[in-house]
Amino acid sequence: MLSMSSDHGVKNYTDWDDFDAEAYVRHNYVQKILHEDRYILERVIKALHDHGAKPQAWEHVADVGTGPNFYPPMLLAPFVKPAENGGRVDLIEFSPDNRRYLEEVLRGSHPHSNDGCWHKFETAMRKECLLWTGAVQEVCEKAKVVAGSIFELPHEAYDAISSYFVAESITDDLETCKKAVNRVLNAVKPGGFISMAFMLGSEGYPAGVDTFFPAVAIDVPQLRGMYFGKADVEIVQVPAKPGARPGYTGMAVVTGKKL
Q: How many CB atoms lie within 10 A of CB 70?
């Protein structure tokens, strides 16, 4: 167990080695696309269009803290050069079980490679724009799973970067969350595209039987402060029904560019 201090004292959290990727995917992504995720897809696709992103123009992008969530790199993949021309999508992940899951999906050896779990997200993206036709396969061709931490990212290395439900969902300390956001911003080149998503009000969450992982119960004004003077972004609160997590009040999606 990990022990962390919080406003409510010391809490015991499950070790990240025990994060159950399969359980997390079953709970969040297998049955259907949640309203909140569909809303995020639409906002990010619009933001990429507004940003002027060109198909197969970026050389190196990253999704930070991918976890067992395949749709954020799917959103970026059409704008990355083919692998044979040097294009690459880094799926940067700390948890061993999450890395295993991603490797199996990329190899096509996991049931979710072919059972429609992630293809339904591709269908939803394709309805917004035909550019996302074949997005699952594009990730499989261009992506590499990288063992790493949000706190140890390279400086100004990426043309675009995404990070969904990570900075606020790895700690219960607001300052640590701010540090994580800063590390993500530091890793993208000036003018590069940024896409991040956050749980709002979350007080923690399970990922497997008898597990509990930390979260910071942040709100939109706090998020605005994290990006002020560092990035030109739009922050939109995603309408949601409470109940997904203790304290949960919705999601926020952040899109824009690094200053």
A: 27
| Cβ contact 245:202 at 8 Å | yes
Report how far residue 146's alpha carbon sits from residue 23's, in angstroms, rounded to the nearest whole number: 22
Residue-wise pLDDT tens digits, 75-115: 999 999 999 999 999 999 999 999 999 999 999 999 998 88
pTM > 0.85: yes or no: yes
